[in-house]
């Protein structure tokens, strides 16, 4: 018996996916495999560890690669911007030199002096000289749109191109910046429209202007402030800026002193259109930052021009930067999948090697469970398995010895068990009953003697029948009824009894002789001071089994007495016979046979009575 118990425990501990548990495993096969088997756990743990490791390694590698690539692109872009700044500064420096030379030209000074001359012929002559001067300059400078001379009141005095609206006041325009310095200096004005010509076809396109006061180089100051305005074609500046390609759709632009773009690249997907954004971002001499998100995320690098203090700005889309990492982005998940496959295969092989001695051990355990107890489990494939099998072999040998001793012990205890059953009939009860029969014989009550002898004979025959340990409840009721009838002969009118039970429960089974010790205890201890007592036996079926309630209306017990009698598990075979021993005997028999929660419970109250409840399982009809 103990051998089979050990084998069952071993089987449950090592083999959770065997044939007897297949129905449960089919419900959750994957969960069972990964959580209930060593092989599944090893695969799961190895895969989890390596996936996390590869994911972290791939993520860190990808991030480092992205940072290196971004820094390289940033460094490359800064070099491009620096080169562009040099080229554009050179371009604007040439414009500065040209404007400075023109503003100091004797031709322009002579013409200005004739502003107030009433001689129209002389005035026309000088204007013609100015026009020829400007024409000669424009002939060799295609990036210059035109020249304008603006008098001290803001109106046009002379120009190189078409006719200018004489009512157009340049000083009133928001793009025009009046020069307040007395020193000779060239100022650059941001992009603006040419809306001062009379003909509409000359109004097309925007220009950038360079402006300087016309001074007499022989005079330190002048009372009249006349300005030379040189308009530059934006397309010329744009062509210089975009000579170098930045990725496929990246581009370079220039922001004026108000951070407004000089030009916008055709087809550009992104730009900082908000003046507030441009003011917040471009507040340093140089730098870089990132704006946008998703497909419209851009890296922006800028530097300040030395000549004009404008900004040269490069826009590089991150989408094209990421395109360089497509290969590594695809490589990382593919590498992870390959590693997972390798790890799964390796874990399967390793798990199979580790499980092999366990499976051999399990197979041998199945044979032992089938009765082949002479098989040796010893296996020295690993140190752990060797120690385990040595101990199990030793345990099985001990269990075999214990099993043999147990069989001998059971045989030896049969006689003791019979004696215990016989002891359920109190010797004092037998003696007192025989004394009652003797008294009846003296007075000649032969019929009562016959009935009492029959009743005591039935009781003795029921008690000594050792072939029946489990009987029907009906048999147990008949036995206790015989016992109560005998007691009624001995103590006439001393107590009455009632038995409440359904016909269905009468066919259920119960351990033998569990009612007599309880009823006997009530008669001996409960009704000593009563004129007439009452005993009620009630049988009821519940979910846990059958509940037998024995109630007496005797004197009851104090809490101390109840506590002492209720210690039913502390059975002392050397203790003198009393009511508590009888109850403990019944409780131990039921508990040993059926286990928890079956057995006896007690409740009592002084001058109300005592209730003994016996709970047994309902095992069907006999």
Which class best fits the helix and strand makeup?
A: alpha+beta
**In what range is the share of β-strand residues?**
15-25%
Helix share bin = 40-55%
Average pLDDT across residues? Answer: 78
Query: What's the story with the biggest beta sheet?
Result: 5 strands, antiparallel
Shape: rod-shaped
Low-confidence stretches: 1-27, 571-578
Note the total helix count: 18
Strand order of the largest sheet: 2-1-5-4-3
Total beta-strand segments: 16
Radius of gyration: 58 Å
Membrane topology: Multi-pass membrane protein
Domain HAMP: 352-404
Pfam family, one: dCache_1
Main location: membrane
What this model shows, in words?
The protein has 622 residues and is α+β, with helices and mostly antiparallel strands. It has 18 helices and 16 strands. The chain has helices at 2-14, 22-27, 29-36, 38-103, 106-113, 120-139, 234-241, 275-281, 318-323, 326-369, 383-422, 427-443, 446-464, 473-490, 503-506, 516-525, 559-565, 579-594; strands spanning 144-150, 156-159, 187-193, 206-213, 227-233, 251-255, 286-291, 298-304, 311-317, 470-472, 495-500, 509-511, 533-541, 546-552, 599-605, 609-616. It has a five-stranded antiparallel beta sheet with strand order 2-1-5-4-3. Strands 11-13-14-16-15 form a five-stranded mixed beta sheet, covered by helices on one side. A hairpin with a 6-residue loop joins strand 8 (298-304) and strand 9 (311-317). Helix 1 runs antiparallel to helix 10, helix 4 packs antiparallel against helix 10 and helix 13 packs antiparallel against helix 14 (473-490). It is rod-shaped, with a radius of gyration of 58 Å. This is HAMP domain-containing protein. It is found in: Cell membrane.
